[in-house]
Design brief:
The chain has about 100 residues and is of the alpha+beta class. The chain has one domain: Phage tail protein-like (STM4215-like), CATH 3.30.2000.10. It contains 2 helices and 5 strands, in the order αβββαββ. It is elongated and about 50 Å long. About 15% of the residues are buried. The model has no long low-confidence stretch (mean pLDDT about 95).
């Protein structure tokens, strides 16, 4: 799977679960389980002191009441995806992944 841009990435995430949010403002009432993702940073590769490849890094968070949610395993299968951390807030499990597109 080759992801070209953020909108295509959004569609890939929606194929995993219908509730997907990109950088949601605090006023958005989210439906769970869901995936929330944010731009984190970029990664530029250089050759001869010139940039030749750029990738954006996203924080992708799976939020679910079920600690064994199958959604987290589907996200973990995406190319360049690594688990960063897990935490729980208000009986919701948060699995945070880093992913480059």
């Amino acid at each position: 799977m080759f992801i070209v841009d953020r909108l295509q990435f959004h569609e890939v995430l929606k194929a995993i679960t219908p509730n997907v949010y990109f950088q949601p403002p605090p006023s958005v009432a989210m439906q769970y389980p869901c995936i929330i993702y944010h731009v984190n940073t970029g990664l530029t590769h250089f050759a001869g002191n010139l940039p030749y490849r750029y990738s954006e890094k996203y924080d992708v968070t799976v939020v679910d009441r079920d600690p064994d949610t199958p959604i987290r395993f589907e996200v973990a299968k995406l190319p360049t995806c690594t688990l960063n951390r897990w935490y729980a807030v208000d009986n919701l499990n948060h699995y945070v992944y880093n992913l480059y597109i």
